[in-house]
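Much of our argument rests on the idea that a fold can be written as discrete symbols. The amino acid sequence and the backbone structure tokens for this protein are reproduced below:

___
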Amino acid sequence: MTDRKSLDYPYDAAPGPAEMIQVADGVHWLRMPIPLDLDHINLWLMEDEDEAGAPTWTIVDSGFGHKETQALWRRLFDGPAAGRRPHRLICTHYHPDHFGLAGWLAREFGVTVEMTEGEWVVGALLQRIDHETAAAAQDSFFRRHGMEAGLRERLAAFGNEYQRRVVTPPDRHRRIRDGQTLTIGGRRWEVLTVEGHAVEHACLLCRELDLLICGDQLLPKITPNISVYWFKDGGRPLAEYYESLDKLEAAVPGEALVLPSHKLPYRGVQTRIDQLRAHHVERLDALLQGMSRTTPMTGFALLPAMFPRKLDDMHMMFALGEVLAHLEHLADAGRAEAALDADGVQRWRLV
């Protein structure tokens, strides 16, 4: 059995550009670059066949929407993946490194794009919002939560950054649903939808191979961003994430090989779930320590309680979303409350 105190990493290194590593019968690991601090994404190619029995590839996640990744896909299908045609793309969720090239792959290779409806709708809508509209909506959100004016102006200059990272989406998608069974390469893959990090994130579980493609939900080493976003009110992202951890804990065999979107594949899913729960308990405790019963504080003012290190502008934006998700979780638990002041700024205090 895997030691619950540590994870087991069966691979020491990732595949290089336009290379493939087989991690299970018919399942291959790719790695593509991302022009961000988290500089890569793991993608998966699965041997499959079309309705006529011709050999094809099913792809899981598209990579970031830029020309470097397009060139690597061409190299891959002209090189180590030659002999099968790309036929099907399953996107785990709408974030740019997972959905960014879905439209290009559909147009370039004729793949059918499959994803949950929630992820498709959010991704397709965000990609189509013009820069001025996105900047204004985000600025209103940032102002409400106390972000300083200078930082708001710098972030507004980015406009709709999502649109720059995601090419025009495909015209249509094929919907996949929680509990659905997909047949890929003659094997059954269960769709498990999870929340918290995205709206209807899909994981894929193959019991025959003892394999879980987890997207961003169960990353090793790092934790997925759990945030409140400017375009969605009324969510409970941290509670939803906890509920999804419970769901995966119940569904995934303890010795399954977990294929994450970042870092290395690992075994020890129960251990990692324990670690992720503990991480958020620590974040909540840190936030409680930074709050007051008598002096209400904005979410922006509480950033140092959860993120004491220096952050750049983009990381400040993501950190604010995380702080708000944890504040809302404390409010659900009856430990904090928020009120809008006369200027429309939301402030939080301990109960």
Observations:
- DSSP finds eleven helices and 15 strands in the chain.
- The mean pLDDT is 96.
- The longest strand covers residues 40-49.
- The CA atoms of residues 135 and 159 lie 5 Å apart.
